[in-house]
Amino acid sequence: MASALPTLLLVHGSWHGPWCWDRLIPELDRHGIAVATVRLPSCAPDPGPWGTLQDDARAVAGAAARIAGPVAVLGHSYGGVVISQADHPANVVRLIYLGAVMPDSGRSLVSYLPPGPLPEYVVDRGDGTLMLNRAVIGRDLYGDCDAETVAWASQRVVPQNAAAPMTPIGQAAWRRIPSTYVVLSEDLTIPTPLQRVFAVQATDTRELAGSHSPFASRPAALARMIADCLTDASGPRDAARIKVGLAGAD
Q: Which whole-number Å values give the CA distances from 217 to 38, 45, 229, in the listed order?
């Protein structure tokens, strides 16, 4: 019997690819959640080419359009910028932000960073691309993962077009599509206090203990939370959370 839940389209963050979901997908399958993935053109191995934020957004919208039936789109980290920018087809019923940047219209990922040099986990290669600093990946992006997992990720990350995180989005998709924000309680990459600011904008808010990459460190717990989110996505709780968020913003 087909699942009554929407298909989940997984959108990775900077320097990553669909490989990052390898541990999560089997756990989602146990909850009866059909999954699709997409590779963002802005992230590619040498020698490129590397796409733009607009290319990423088109890739996500196209992937959603190819899925029959309702779709929930989950963006992690920079993936939150992409799902905010995308012109989603009508079958997209929910956006899920997992430790992600959730920009408003006219804002870029970089616009939410404090002034000063790039974070230590970012390496500017001087050729229009940025790379993840493998020396600190275990501390900043995979802080609650074992050494084997850190090595697994370090061997697979690729450069990203430096313009992508610097490009402002147009109209934010979360203003017209219901959304859930999953706050990661010990995140150093998209700091948890900033995540709480983004979460005020969402229709629904959840929290998961852990660092920036729970798809690798806590896939079973993350899958349970996603299943709960997709099951309970509509109802009076969402409206209540909107009211609380607006009151907190004032």
A: 21, 25, 20
CA angle 106, 177, 54 (to 5 degrees): 45
DSSP result, 86-124: S---TTEEEEEEES---PPTT--SGGGSPSSSPPTTEEE
DSSP-assigned beta bridge partners for residue 206: 182
Could you tell me which residue, 121 or 232, shows the higher pLDDT?
Answer: 121
Per DSSP, 23 falls in state: T
Q: What is the pTM of this model?
A: 0.92
pLDDT, tens digit, for every residue of 237-246?
343 333 223 2
The Cα–Cα gap between 75 and 82 comes to: 7
Would you state the structure tokens that stand for residue 246, as one six-digit string? 């607006």
Distance in angstroms between the alpha carbons of the first and the last residue of the chain: 47
What lies within 8 Å, CB to CB, of 125 at 6+ separation is 131, 159
| Whole-Å CA distances, 2 to 63, 80, 207 | 20, 28, 29
What SS3 class is residue 84? Answer: helix
Contacts made by residues 216-219, CB under 8 angstroms, sequence distance 24+: 216/20, 216/23, 216/142, 216/145, 216/149, 216/152, 216/153, 217/142, 217/144, 217/145, 217/149, 218/144, 219/23, 219/24, 219/26, 219/27
Instruction: Find the DSSP H helices in 9-105.
Output: 24-30, 53-65, 79-85
Q: Are 30 and 223 in contact (CB under 8 A)?
A: yes
Rounded CA-CA distance 223/247 in Å is: 30
